[in-house]
Amino acid sequence: MAKRFPAAYYVERILAHDRLGLSRAITLVESTLPSDQELAREIIQQLLPFSGNSVRIGITGVPGVGKSTFIEAFGTFVTREQQKKLAVLAIDPTSQRTGGSILGDKTRMETLAGNKQAYIRPSPAGKSLGGVARSTRESIILCEAAGFEVIFVETVGVGQSETAVHEMVDFFLLLMLAGAGDELQGIKKGIMEMADAVVITKADGQNLQKARAARAEYQSALHLFPRTASGWSPKVAISSALENTGITEVWQTIEAYLETVQNGSYFEQKRQHQNLHWLHESIRQTLLDRFFAKPEVKETLPELEKKVLQGEVSAFAAAEELLKFSN
Ligand SMILES: Nc1nc2c(ncn2[C@@H]2O[C@H](COP(=O)(O)OP(=O)(O)OP(=O)(O)O)[C@@H](O)[C@H]2O)c(=O)[nH]1
Ligand SMILES: [Mg+2]
After folding, report:
1. CA 229 to chain centre
2. Is the dihedral of CA 33, 113, 198, 95 positive or negative?
3. Is the CB of 157 inside a 6 Å radius of any atom of ligand 1?
4. Which residues contact 9 (CB under 8 A, 6 or more apart)?
5. Ligand 1 in contact with 201 (CB < 6 A)?
6. Disulfide engineering: 172 pairs with which of 58, 156, 158, 208, CB 3.0-4.6 Å?
7. Strands 118-120, 171-176: parallel, antiparallel or unpaired by DSSP?
8. Residue nearest to atom 32 of ligand 1 (CA)
9. CB 244 less than 6 A from any atom of ligand 1
10. More confident residue, 161 or 146
C-alpha cells in the first residue's frame, strides 16, 4: 500500500493546486479500506468550503459515438480558447468486463493528457456503479478545491450510469450519431429527457448531410418533452471533433444555459437537491455494504439462494429471514 499522510497534507497540497496531492487524495476516495475512507471524509469536510466553483458537465453516449475524440477537441477548446482549468473524470462501472476504463484509452486524448491546464483521471477499475458514482462525486469536490473551473464527467450511455452522472452535474450533454436510429444507439427516452443539449457527432464528409437532418429531427423531438423548471429548452448541435467544427457552439450553448439558470435560483436549487440525493444515496449504499459484509449474511445467503432457486422458499420469505441479521 502506498504511503498515507495526515489529512492536513492533502488539504494543503490541494489548496496549493498541486496535482500529485490531488491524485493521492482521489486514491483515498476510491479506496475501500475503512481507514482510507475515514481520511478521505476528513479531507473532503475540510475542502468543502473551497468547492462548488466550477461548471460540472456530464458527457454521455453509446460506445463509439466519439466521446473520447469529442472530449479531446472540446477540452482543448476549453483550456486553450477559454483559458479554463479542466478536470476530466469518468464513471465506468463496466470496466470490470473490459479490463480497462473509458479514460484508460488515453490514446485518443493525447493532446489533452499532455495539456498542463487539464487533469485526466481514469475511472477506477472493478467497482460497482454505486461505488464509482460516490467516488466520482467526491472527486469533483477535490478537483474544485484544487482550482479546476470546468469538470467533465464522462460515462458510457448504456445503462444506469447516466442517471448517476445526471445527479452530479449542472449540464448534461448527450452525444448521438446521425442515422443510427434510436434503437441502435440504445438511447432510451429517459436519457433524451435528461439532456440539456444533444450533439450529433462526426458531422463531416459524407455524414454532414445526415447530421443536419438528424439535428432537425432531434430538435423537434425534444420540443415534445415537457419543459422543466429550469426554463431552458434543450438544444441540438452538430460537431465534428476531427475537423474541429461545432465546438464553439457547444460551449456557447453551455454559457447560455448557465445564464438562464443562474439568473434565478434554479442553479443553486439543483445543486442542493443533488446534495440531498447523495445523502440518501450514501445512506442506502452504506447500509447495503454493511449488511452484506456481515458474517451471518455471507454465510446464510448462499443457502437461501439455493432454496429460492429450487422453489422451496419464496424470495420474500428468504429476504425476511436474512434481514433478521440487519441490526
Ligand atoms: N469522421 C469522424 N470520425 C470520428 C469523429 N470523432 C470520432 N470519430 C471516430 O469514431 C471512432 C470512435 O471514437 P471514440 O472517440 O473512441 O468514441 P467513444 O465514444 O469514446 O468510444 P468508447 O470509448 O468505446 O465508448 C474512432 O474511430 C474515431 O476516430 C469525428 O468527428 N469524425
Ligand atoms: Mg472513449
Report:
1. 22
2. negative
3. no
4. 21
5. yes
6. 58
7. unpaired
8. 202
9. no
10. 146
Q: Which residue type, as a one-letter code, is found at position 196?
A: D
CA dist., res. 172 & res. 222, Å (int)? 14
Contact 120, 88 (CB under 8 A): yes
pLDDT, averaged across the chain: 89
Domains of the chain: 51-264 (3.40.50.300), 275-326 (no CATH)
Residue 48: predicted pLDDT: 95
Over residues 173-227, the pLDDT tens digits come to 999 999 776 655 666 777 888 899 999 999 999 999 999 999 998 888 888 887 7
CB 185 within 8 A of CB 156: no
Q: Which amino acid is at 271?
A: R
Q: What is the pTM of this model?
A: 0.90
| Full 3-state SS string of the chain | CCCCCCHHHHHHHHHCCCHHHHHHHHHHHHCCCHHHHHHHHHHHHHHHHHCCCCEEEEEEECCCCCHHHHHHHHHHHHHHCCCCCEEEEEECCCHHHHCCCHHHCHHHHHHHHCCCCEEECCCCCCCCHHHHHHHHHHHHHHHHHCCCCEEEEEEECCCCHHHHHHCCCCEEEEEECCCCCHHHHCCCHHHHHHCCEEEECCCCHHHHHHHHHHHHHHHHHHHCCCCCCCCCCCEEEECECCCCECHHHHHHHHHHHHHHHHHCCHHHHHHHHHHHHHHHHHHHHHHHHHHHHCHHHHHHHHHHHHHHHCCCCCHHHHHHHHHHHHC
